[in-house]
Each structure stands twice: as C-alpha cells, then as structure tokens.
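[step 3/7] fold_predict: job queued, chain A
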Amino acid sequence: MNGVIESLGSWNSILLEQARSGSAHGVKQLFDRMPEWSVASWNILLSGYARQGDLDRAQSVFDQMPQRTLVSWNSMLAAFVAGGKLDQARLFLERMPMRSIVSWTTLLHAYAQTMDHAMLRLMFDRELPERDTICWNVLLGAIAAQERTGIEQILEVFHEIPGRDLASWNILLNWFAQRRDLECTQKTFDSMPERDMISWTVLLSCCIQAGCVDRAVRVFNQMPQQNMYSWNSMLTLYADRGDLAYATAIFNQMPQRNAASWNTLFVLNAQKGHLNRAKEIFDEMPGRDVAACTAMLAAYGAAGLADEAERVFYDMPEWDLVAGNAILVALSSSPAATERLFDQMPAKDLYTWNIALQTRAANGDLEEAKRIFDEMPETNLVSWNALLTAYTQKNSLEDAYNLLIAMPDWCLVSWTLLVATYGQNNMAGEAKHLFDRMLERDVVAWTAIICAFAQNGHLEQAKKLFDMIPYEPSNLVAANAILSCYSQDHTHYRGAFELFSELKLIDSIDGSCFVSILVACRHTGKLDTAKALFHSIAIDFGLVPSKQHYSCMLDVMSRTVALREQAVDLALAMPFFPDAVEWTSIVGESARWRMLGLTFPKSFFSPPKVSVITSD
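[step 4/7] structure written:
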C-alpha cells in the first residue's frame, strides 16, 4: 500500500510541475498515463484548465470527478471567472456545498476586474460571511480604480480595514501617485509601517512624473535595492529631458539591462543626431527585436539616409506592419522604391495607404495619387488632404476646389491649403472668398490670406488683415510677408519702418524682420539707421547676425563710394566666408579688387549714436 501511495505521490508531483509550466494539454497527457488517480490528481487537472479559461474541458473534468473537495469547487468557480461567465460563477457559488474565504474572494476579484462595482459592493456588504484583509484590499483596489473616487472616499475605506497590511498601504500610495499628488504620496510613504520594492518604485515614479529630478535622484539613491524598473525609470527620466550625458552615465552603471534600456539610449542618440553612436548601440544590442530594428530604420529615414534604412529593413529577421510603414516613410523621397515595397507588403493598413498616397502627392505625380486614392479600401481626412495637395501642386485649382467641396469632412488644413495655393497663383480675390467661407480660422489661415495679398502687391489690404489677426503676439510669418513686400516696393518704404516699429513695441522680432528692414534701408540710403539696426540685432534682441544680415549691410555700405573700403573690411571680418554675392556688391568691377588689402576700421563695430529708428 505504501508503495502505491509513494508512486501516486510521485505522479502527482510530476503532474503539478507540468501544470505550473502552463500547458494544460501536457497535464492531460500525463494524467492519462497515470496508473491511478487521487482527488489531488483530478484537482490538478481541473485547475490547469481553469487557469486557461477552458470552461468546457474544466466542466467535463469536474463532472467526471468521483469525489470533490473544496479545492475542486473553488477551481471550477475560478474556471467560470476566467471564462468571463460571472453570472454562472455567481450561481455556482450559491450551490456550492462548501465555501471558504477564497471562494468569495475569487468572485470579488472578478467584479473588481470587470469594474462591476455595484455587485462588488453588494457582495462585500451583504453576503460575505467574513472578511479578511484580502477582501478589504480587493474593495479598496476597486474603489481606487474608479476615476471619480475622491480622497475622502478612499481614505474612509482605507481606515475601515481592521488589519491593514503592506498591500493596503501600497494601494493608497499608488492612488495618490496616479493623480500626481507628490506631497500626499510622500506623506503616505513616510507613514507606512513597512515598505517593499513596490512602495519605493511608486514613489520614484511619482517624482519622475512630477518632473522633480533632484527628488527622484534622492529617492533612487535611498532605495534599499534597485530593480530593472527603477533603473529604466531613471534612464527614461534623463532621456525625456534630452540629457544624453546623464542618460549614458545611468546606462553604464546599470547592473543589467533589458531591451527597454538599450532602446531608450539608442533612440536618444538618434534624436540627438548621433547616428554613428546610435548604430554602435544598435549593433551591441543583445537579441535585437523588431521594435529596435524599426527604430533604427526610422532614425535613418529621419536623417534622409534611405539606403541605410533599407539595408536595416532587409536585414531584419522578421517584419511587422509598423516596420513596413517606417521603411515606406524612409523611402518616401523615392517613388519607385516606395511603390516596389508597397506592392510587396503582405498586409496594409490605412496608414500604409496614406504613406503611398502622400509620397505620390509630394512628388507631383497627380495621376498615380488619384489611382492610389481610388484603390484605397478606406479613406480618412489625411487621405483627402493628400489628394488635395496633389491637385494644388499641379495648380489644378478647379479640381482642387471641387475636391474640397466633395470632402466628407473638412479641417483647417484643407481650407488653408487651397487659400495659400490661390495666393501663390495671383488669385487673391478667390483666396479671400474662400477665407471668408471658413467656419473657423487659426493663425496659419490668417497668415495664408495675408501672404496672398502681400505677395501679389495688395499691401494695404494685407496690412488691414494683419491688424485684424485675433492673436497676440502678432504672427511673425505674416508680418515678414508684409515687411518683405514693403521693403521692395519704393512706394511703401515708409510702411516698412512703421511696421517694424510696431513689431518692436510688442517684442515680436526675428532675424527675417531685420533682413527686410535692412533691405528697406538699402533702397532709401539710410546708412546710419542700417548701422543702428545691425547692432540692435545682438544688443537689443539677443539674436546672432546671419550671413544674410551681413550681406544686406555690405550692400547698404557699398552704395556709398566713400564707405566701400569699410565694406571690404567688414566682408573680411564677418564670421562667414564671403562669396560672389558679397564681393559683387562691393567691387562692382574687377578694378576694385585692389581694395582687398585695406585695413579694417575698428570704429565700425562701435555702437552708433543713433538710438531711435526713424523713417526720415
């Protein structure tokens, strides 16, 4: 008899190990080979099916069992829950001949996971014969998961728990952390009688989400031990801030790394433009996955290195739709390569079709864009806008307008695109007509209509529209469009200086504004004003003078014969290599090249006495 028991015990041990591996099929095969079964054998087989949610097989085993224990009934109850049959699970619980706190807790967990708080509360308040800390924690966790739960509600339940344990405290701690309430999270953490890795990790995550870097570092250093999650959290913290040096230091200190660690540092290097280092990290990755390969080819694509991106793609052990879409984007500058790859893709989604459509539209292939659009199994606003772009690039304005009217949905981009296209084709009236029909307008739309008038010589109307923009500060793109036109039209030079002065008052000046006003100085011969403006670029506005600013200044000076020597000296002293444009402005004819040996007068860089820009 003892030999039989030992043999059965050994079989059950093997059966249990098989069940822990997660293979219910393997458990059944081993079960069928056993010379005899005990109730424990049946329970192991039943629990295996129950964990996988295989309700039919679990029910079949349960019905065949020669005898059942409380474990058998609880396993069958768990099978109903895992299979999502909560109504049947409740009925089964009611007819169970024996129950334990595990029975009730199984169903409580199910109601909590399905967010059925009414049934959870009903069972907890009215039906539970007894409540242990696990039951209370299930209730507390369910309340914490509700979006509308207030602090008074969760604290009330928390304080009702007669024997709060570490899990209770962690639920409350996590509730505060998810709301990014760092102070309450810290107070709760400090009040905890004991803490585990979960507690420390929750506090660390809260500090990171709140953007408190120093505090996060302090918590990290105070942790009794750091796990992979905490190390990756710190790595991500510095990566999100774009701090490559600290992120690299954290990465190098990590006792072990996973795919997330490698990908974080790799992506950060790629975003910083360090493609060579990114490629080194990519090559060092142990067991590169599809996500890493996709990130690498996307980085190459963003840098315009289509060949390298394609090489990474074809070296991948397997492809998924995300990788396919990424390589399509990388190859978008080559319609032929995009088309070839598009045709090879075994699966396509709407994003895939839109990439192919946008590629054709961007390259001016209207007919191919129309063909792809017509073949698309579904379309969205991106699709319609891409086709609209194809029409506008070919200046098929009537077709573009008809397409806009036929679109099932509109957005600001659609309307603004056509307004801008009308402006580029000297059709300011049509642009204004379309602009007036727009139900809403953003600063881009206002800029488009202002540019439509300004670039076609209607400067007074452009200025009126500019003054109507309901945005502060004034839009620099629109301002530059008007300012540029003013500066090149001899009848509107005064308007250029007046508009520039307006922009100065609201501190809304950029480098392009200075280029336009310096051009106006050139046409009006205002040398002193030009010098004052040139110095103002850096002194008053903190901008760095560009090569274009220097070129404008050289042009202004070269128009005065007495200042050509100073112009040459400025060309030699500027932090850019002067090209033919600059020398042509200065010399005018080959005989002037002898001036290249003159000494530069340092007084030019002394701030001029002119302090107020006027238009006299």
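[step 5/7] annotate
The CA atoms of residues 419 and 434 lie 7 Å apart.
Residues 1-5, 589-616 have pLDDT under 50 and may be disordered.
exit 0
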